[in-house]
Write a structure and sequence with these properties.
single chain; 6-stranded mixed β-sheet; 14 helices; 45% helix
Length: 419
């Protein structure tokens, strides 16, 4: 059992005693329902053949077909894929979407691939996992280093393999191929709505709050520019090549343009005099809100004491370890948990799935409205649990999610029914 799945299970163990749950439900959630490993053969542009390790995990389908992203990254492993499938199970239950959790990944550095090689790899993944995927079984979506084009290739390959046009097997597709308006912005915009829905509880005032954001991919940028437009001061952002930091602030749109032109946020425009800073130290600067929006595992017992922010908004998956949670709570740092903060992506993915199945598509305004209402309704339920049970935000989120999973399991009958 790997480190990431172990950490994920600790979340379950911490809340299990708080919910009136049948032991067999915990037993079911302790291991993934189905995990498939494959080797993906790809013909490279130079004529050689390379094989890439790949996995797909359907963690739990108690509440419906499994749903989860697909990442292409050099660090992908079976442990990571299973842990992310676990988190997706709880994320879907928390925001009350009729999906279970899944995740997939390919161990590859996409910067080493040409566009043609990337397409061959994407299609090879579908050929290997066609039997696992399906509109009523397992639905995939983009994640790290996958995008709408990759989803388009995969949907096309799935259709060729099955002889049927089933766009709802993959979400995050281009609009012209059945994608949903608002899907690209959904994760970052959802994180903004999550913070907004909780700002009174967190005692946050946009006009006096300073924010640092680790990462400047799509989710991070969407979160940053929504916060900026609402009056927050963005004082630092980073990407894989470095960090941009200025206590006087910066405009995310201008930084995005600079990154588009140069390939990095480093040296981007700011409102004052930019300061050189180690990107690994960005999240530990003095600020009101720290937003980890890149890889997981950023806050551990080794560095949690260094956090100066009052709030951590988890846009990435699993940026805070279970043991670091305790230290942060002791120091008065409130964590807005990932299964709530970054749920916007799966919420709008569900909307895309619904639109594909009905053949009726909504406007951007309608999608945004549905996203905001889902987030605000979940926040209201979270705060109710928090007040009634005297739990942290993370514990409240897992309590609510586990309660819903238990209700679904009990509706089919558990030991209590048959005894």
């Amino acid at each position: 059992m790997g480190e990431r799945l172990t950490a994920a299970r600790k979340r379950l163990e911490r809340v299990a005693d708080l919910v009136d749950v049948d032991p067999e439900v915990i037993e079911r959630l302790y291991y993934p329902k189905e995990t498939l490993a494959a080797s993906l053969p790809v013909r490279m542009d130079d004529g050689s053949m390379r094989s890439f390790k790949a996995w797909r995990c359907r963690y739990d389908d108690t509440r419906g077909p499994t749903k989860g992203g697909l990442r292409f990254h050099a660090s992908v492993s079976a442990d990571e894929v299973m842990a992310l499938g676990f988190w997706m199970t709880f994320k879907c239950a928390l925001v009350d979407i009729p999906f279970g959790g899944a995740k997939g990944g390919v161990q590859v550095d996409t910067s080493e691939l040409s566009s043609r090689e990337l397409e061959r790899l994407s299609r090879s993944f579908v050929r290997a996992f066609t039997g696992m995927l399906g509109p009523n079984r397992d639905i995939a979506a983009p994640d790290m280093y996958t995008n709408s084009m990759v989803m388009a290739w995969m949907a096309d390959e799935f259709g060729a393999a099955t002889g049927a046009h089933t766009p709802e097997v993959f979400t995050g597709k281009p609009l012209q191929l059945g994608g949903s308006r608002g899907r690209d912005e959904a994760t970052g915009r959802g994180a903004f709505h999550a913070l907004t829905a909780l700002k009174d509880h967190l005692n946050i005032k946009p006009e006096t709050s300073r924010v640092v954001i680790q990462g400047f991919g799509n989710a991070a940028y969407e979160c940053a520019h929504n916060l900026f437009d609402d009056g927050y001061t963005i004082i630092g952002v980073s990407d894989s090549k470095g960090a941009l930091f200025d206590p006087d602030g910066l405009d995310p749109a201008e930084v995005k343009q600079h990154k588009r032109e140069t390939g990095s946020v480093v040296g981007g425009p700011t409102k004052g005099t930019p300061q050189e800073i180690d990107p690994d130290e960005l999240l530990f600067q003095e600020c009101d809100i720290a937003v980890p929006a890149a890889l997981g595992g950023q806050f551990t017992t080794r560095n949690a004491e260094k956090v100066q922010a009052r709030v951590i908004l988890e846009v990435a998956n699993g940026p805070v370890s279970p043991d670091a949670d305790d230290l942060l709570d002791k120091n008065g740092v409130v964590v807005v948990p990932d299964i709530f903060a970054n749920s916007g992506g799966v919420i709008v993915s569900h909307l895309e799935w619904v639109q594909n199945r009905s053949g009726y598509y909504w406007s951007l305004a309608e999608v945004r409205d549905r996203l905001e209402h889902r987030i605000s309704d979940t926040a209201e339920e979270l705060l109710k649990v928090l007040d009634e049970k005297a739990l942290s935000l993370r514990e409240s989120a897992y309590f609510l999610a586990l309660s819903r999973i238990c209700e679904a399991a009990q509706a089919r009958g558990t030991k209590r029914f048959f005894s």
